[in-house]
Design a protein that fits this description.
Number of helices: 1
Radius of gyration: 17 Å
Distance between the termini: 23 Å
Largest sheet: 5 strands, mixed, barrel
Strand order of the largest sheet: 1-3-4-6-5
Helix content: under 10%
Shape: globular
Mean pLDDT: 78
Strand content: 35-45%
Oligomer: single chain
Length: 156
């Protein structure tokens, strides 16, 4: 079984590209801190992720740098030969499911509650209908979930 679940922050806005067939692919990188420190410094892994199809369009439209996200997918190891003739490996996660856990404070989407929670997320600039989240700040990530578009419009 090849199943990976990760929670981390996007290091940049996802990049969206289309193949000539019309299939969409969106790529990003998730930063995840390890549970230990080396030389009193936090060690961070930067994990490349790939999202395909309609979900790739959703990923690139509704997710931005700094968002805390959860992804579930499979680990893929691409093997190739570089320009010097050396065999190389490249690990990435091909995402099957993704979820936005929160939106970072100060990205223009905060409603000004002053407590870091998103409150009523009607200022979401994604162009879709935002879900209402009337919870106060909590340590439960699911309490901070927001939707970019209505569930009926999600293409997967």
């Amino acid at each position: 079984m090849n199943l990976v679940t990760l929670i981390g922050r996007l290091t940049a806005d996802p990049e969206l590209k289309f193949f000539s067939s019309g299939t969409a692919i969106s790529k990003g990188t998730i930063a995840i801190d390890r549970s230990y420190k080396k030389d009193n410094q936090t060690v961070t892994d930067f994990i490349p992720v790939e999202v395909w199809g309609k979900q790739a369009e959703y990923f690139s439209t509704c997710f931005q740098k700094g968002y805390l996200i959860a992804v579930s997918g499979s680990l893929h190891i691409d093997r190739y030969v570089d320009s010097d003739g050396n065999n190389r490996n490249f690990a990435k996660i091909v995402v099957h499911k993704l979820m936005r856990l929160n939106i970072p404070k100060g990205n223009g989407l905060d409603t000004g509650n002053g407590d870091g929670s998103s409150g009523n997320n009607s200022s979401d600039d994604s162009g879709g209908n935002a879900a209402t989240n009337n919870t106060s700040t909590t340590n439960d990530p699911q309490a901070n979930l927001t939707a970019c578009i209505d569930d009926e419009e999600i293409p997967f």
